[in-house]
Amino acid sequence: MLTLSELIGTNLGQLFKDVVGTFKLSPEKKAELEELVNQNAAALQEKQLELEEKVQAAIAQEVQSAAEVIKAEAQSQSWLPRNVRPLLALLFGLAIVFNVYVPVVARYWSPGLQPLPLDPWLYKLVTIYMTGYVTVRTVEKMFDKDK
Fold first, then answer.
1. Would you say 93 and 126 are in contact if contact means Cβ atoms under 8 Å apart?
2. CB 122: neighbour CB atoms within 10 A?
3. pLDDT tens digits for 40-66?
4. Is the pTM here over 0.90, yes or no?
5. Any idea where the domains of the chain sit in the sequence?
6. CA–CA separation, 139 vs 137, rounded Å?
7. At what angle do helices 41-74 and 27-39 cross, to 10 degrees?
8. What percent of the chain has pLDDT over 70?
9. Rg, the chain, Cα only
10. How far lies 101's CA from each of 16, 82, 112, in Å?
């Protein structure tokens, strides 16, 4: 799971030191602030844990909400909400296939036709999407209670 340190890049004590370090303070004042941070390290650690718990709860709530939306779509009586995800997967696949193979076949009639340059993130997105979709469908079929 995502931790607060990963989210903000550091812990609260270090974040405070970094923020205070950006100000032009005298060495005495800077040492005094660092001493206060060191004295309150336990309280800062407690606040760090509280914030991490809140982040984890927010992430869990987001995942739960997304799962409820997907479940509602799957149980819908209309064909469109039930089939949006498979249709999207089909469209992703067709876009990539046509982008690669149509110029190869069409070069006999139009030699200058080249594939469109697609960003690498599109291939990664399609790979993640298809892997997740196939995995979820496989698990659903394994635990299908109607069989």
1. yes
2. 13
3. 777 777 887 888 888 888 888 888 888
4. no
5. 1-75, 79-147
6. 5
7. 60
8. 82
9. 26
10. 55, 30, 14
